[in-house]
Amino acid sequence: MRMEVKEAEEETWSRETVPKVMRIVSSKLSQRDLISLLLVSPWLHKTLVSYPSLWLVIDLREMNNAGNRLISALSMPRYRHVKQINLEFAQDIEDKHLELLKTKCSDSLQNLESLNLNGCQKISDKGIEIITSACPKLKVFSIYWNVRVTDIGMQHLVKNCKHIIDLNLSGCKNISDKSLQLVSDNYRELESLNLTRCIKLTDGGLQKILSKCSSLRSLNLYALSSFTDEAYKKISLLAHLKFLDLCGAQNLSDEGLACIAKCKNLVSLNLTWCVRITDTGVIAIAQGCTSLEFLSLFGIVGVTDKCLEALSRFCSNTLRTLDVNGCVGIKRRSRDELLQLFPHLKCFKVHS
Questions:
Q1: Which residues of 183-196 are buried (b: 16+ CB within 10 A; e: fewer)?
Q2: Which of 148, 152, 285, 303 counts the highest number of beta carbons within 10 A?
Q3: How far apart are CA 29 and CA 40, in angstroms?
């Protein structure tokens, strides 16, 4: 009788308790912690690997010997349904590793949806061709700070991956307008695009994106001083835009900003060092973007308390972060004065 009771308890444990524990574990522990748990006991190892939902991510961020580690991981049965691979600033990964992945582990890449190659500077256009040809379901692709990838790599991406909605090309200095043409023609449903410091881009390339990728919700144009109002005005076509970073947009005028104010769903707007902007442009933003939660006016000497009054009138219920650092024309700078204007403010920077 005692044995039967014990068996019944073990069955209940396996059927009811373990699944509950797994749901908690999968949401609380990182992949690296899960791997450590595999070593605790054979029973725990067997239990953990029996839950596919725990093994949808391979995280090799900043790790050494990442190329060989990735091949080894994808050779394991538990990763045959992996959806996300993070190699951000991982060391020792090259095109040859991606070639081996395609040869040995292509079946495990069929469901991959997110690939982060940020800082993997040894990956070239050839590597992009190889890895994207094995990942037909890819939705998120990030290759920040890669100066080897060119428009040829983007040709491979759009040919092999038809479902990209999130694309990060930040710091890819050899990407030109041709790449933006490819993106605009092939990714009409694109939701997030980061073009930070892609210095070869011109108004023509950006305008193609703005006219065709109408689903964009996030657009990062940080540290791009070559664009003009002719391009900035077309940002108004992005009706769903929530995040916009224009830091360093030296050619953006009040007229261009007034057009951007038509993006009524904007939640975050970075106007740091947009030196041509005055109260007129910021007032237009206040009146048009009444859901604004984050606004940076850092370094803009042409704005005064007048724009703060407009922001308070239209955005006081939503604005949480405000940066007026270096805005010498703004005099109402004390904590109490700002909180009176913006009662929900959580973060503000006011140093001269």
A1: bbebbeebbbbbbb
A2: 285
A3: 15
User: Tokens at residue 122, please?
Assistant: 């040894």
Contacts of 198 (CB under 8 A, 6+ apart): 169, 170, 171, 172, 173, 175, 224
- The set of residues, in sequence order, having a beta carbon less than 8 Å from that of 312 and lying 6+ positions away, is 341, 342
Non-local CB neighbours of 11 within 8 Å, separated by 6+ positions:
none
Question: How high is the pLDDT of residue 15?
Answer: 64
pLDDT of res. 88 = 98
* Residue burial 23-37, b: 16+ Cβ < 10 Å; e: rest: eebeeeeebeebeee
* Strand partners for 244: 219, 269
Please give the pLDDT value at position 352.
43
**114 pairs with which residues across the strands?**
84, 140
In the chain, at which residue ranges do the beta strands (DSSP E only) sit? 57-59, 84-86, 114-116, 140-142, 166-168, 192-194, 218-220, 243-245, 268-270, 294-296, 321-323, 347-349
Cβ–Cβ contacts within 10 Å for residue 118, how many?
Answer: 19
Measuring CA to CA, how many Å separate 21 from each of 18, 43, 244?
A: 5, 14, 40
Adjacent-strand bridge partners of 323: 296, 349
CA neighbor of 83 nearest in space, from 39, 53, 48, 118:
53
- The helix/strand/coil state of 20 is helix
Express as a percent the part of the chain with pLDDT over 90. 80
Least confident segment among 130-139, 293-302, 342-351: 342-351
Sequence-separated (6 or more) residues with CB below 8 Å from residue 229: 251, 252, 253, 255, 256
Rounded Cα distance between 68 and 90, Å, is 11
Residues 216, 241: Cα–Cα separation, whole Å: 6
Of 196-205, 260-269, 315-324, 330-339, give the lowest mean pLDDT range.
330-339
